[in-house]
Predict the 3D structure of the following.
Amino acid sequence: MPPAPQTSARTLVAFFALTFAVTWSFFITAGTLTGLIPGALRMLVIMLGVFTPAMVALLFTARAEGSTGVLALLGRRAVTI
């Protein structure tokens, strides 16, 4: 397995900032609209917030390494048995 490319501190900060901003935007929207939108739609907005970190990781990987990097990231297992 080739060594992982070096990640700059700037990229890491950008990842966390974007993840934080988008995730909390979804959560605040879901909380604000409680009672105004159906429960299923509210749950969809919450789930979008939950999966935002994974989507941002895919976005940053695609930008840095292209489709090869994205496929490698998707091919990893989170849990090994």
Remarks:
- Residues 39-75 form the longest helix (37 residues).
